[in-house]
Write a structure and sequence with these properties.
alpha/beta, 2 domains
């Protein structure tokens, strides 16, 4: 995980800029949050959801709330929100988190159906040059030792598949599918810190060497390695997920840019996903304006990709996230103000 680092000077400067950017017309309806505090929490895994969270926080402050932001791992977040020790989070990865959410459903409530318009995707990716040169259109082809050897970067004869962090649930999906699809003899799943592994993949791609990885979109990875141009998504042969992972109706996703061989729909490693907002039920009942505001907050896939691209270029601190959020608000002030206005009614 990436730890955010900042300075008081950086925060102060960013806060001043942020306040100026979000300063829109005064709302005649009043401030439903006046005199109230929201304990907002972000997950400890850096992504464009951090920019989303800063826009949500800006909106809540515009509604009159004082917002206190903390960061922790998802297990702790769910426990704290269900117990009423924290109020809300915007970082629920759905449906990955569905089994855990169901356990706290008596005390916590999902507010919106997702903040990415159309949702995101997860799957296996290889460089386009190798895919086209060897007609690779499905992950099951990695059972062929000759195909697998194309992605061998350490000399053991097996394909080196960049997997997720050891603590991430997506890594369990990949390890399960490697066994399920009969790839254990030809593919080695590499689970370590994801960011350094991806940096290595970028370097290999720059040298024109084959790459094989598991990733998702929107993300800073696909901002750097563009599907259909630099890389292709490699479909799975059939739907398969390990126990404990929510099973969607289908893994097939229509109109995926860069699906190998031009396949449509593209059978991804998991079905479509999204970021959803979770709040303590008692808190939400006492603050209906919060639910009304959050339910409107949605962004298209290309906006999320731009945010992820900024992260890939080095944006890492709280001040960076506030700056990106403030720039979006300034460019979309009318839409932002409409969300606020509707929430106050």
């Amino acid at each position: 995980m990436i730890v955010l680092r900042t300075t008081w000077k950086g925060v102060a400067c960013a806060a001043a800029l942020f306040s100026a950017l979000i300063a829109g017309p005064a709302l005649a309806q009043g401030s439903p949050g006046e005199g109230k505090t929201i304990r907002f929490v972000s997950s400890d895994s850096l992504g464009a959801n951090y920019v989303q969270d800063q826009i949500l926080i800006a909106g809540l402050e515009k509604l009159g709330y004082e917002v206190k932001l903390s960061t922790m791992n998802m297990s702790a977040i769910l426990q704290a929100i269900s117990q009423g020790d924290l109020d809300m989070t915007g970082d629920i990865n759905w449906p990955q988190a569905q089994p855990a959410i169901e356990k706290v459903a008596d005390a916590a409530e999902l507010i919106s159906d997702g903040t990415i318009i159309g949702g995101g995707i997860n799957g296996y990716m290889i460089d386009k040059k190798t895919a086209e040169a060897h007609n690779i259109t499905n992950v099951s082809q990695l059972k062929d030792p000759k195909i697998a050897a194309l992605f061998d970067s350490d000399g053991d004869g097996k394909a080196n598949l960049i997997n997720c962090d050891p603590a991430w649930k997506c890594g369990d999906v990949v390890d399960f599918q490697v066994k399920e699809f009969g790839l254990s003899d030809t593919v080695r799943s590499i689970r370590a810190k994801y960011e350094p592994l991806i940096a290595e993949a970028f370097a290999r791609a720059d040298r024109g060497e084959p790459i094989l990885l598991y990733t998702w979109s929107p993300s800073w990875i696909v901002y750097r390695l563009k599907p259909a141009k630099d890389v292709v998504w490699l479909p799975i042969p059939y739907d398969a997920l390990p126990p404990g992972v929510n099973k969607p109706k289908t893994h097939e996703v229509p109109d995926v840019a860069g699906c190998a061989g031009g396949q449509n729909p593209c059978r991804m490693a998991v079905g479509p996903w999204n970021w959803r907002t979770l709040a303590n039920k008692e808190f939400l009942a006492a603050n209906p304006a919060v639910g009304k505001f959050v339910a409107q907050a949605k962004w298209p896939l290309n906006t999320w990709s731009e945010w992820e691209g900024a992260l890939g270029k080095g944006a890492k601190t709280n001040a960076d996230m506030k700056k990106i959020a403030g720039e979006w608000i300034a460019a979309n002030q009318g839409e932002f103000d409409r969300w606020i206005s509707a929430a106050t009614k």
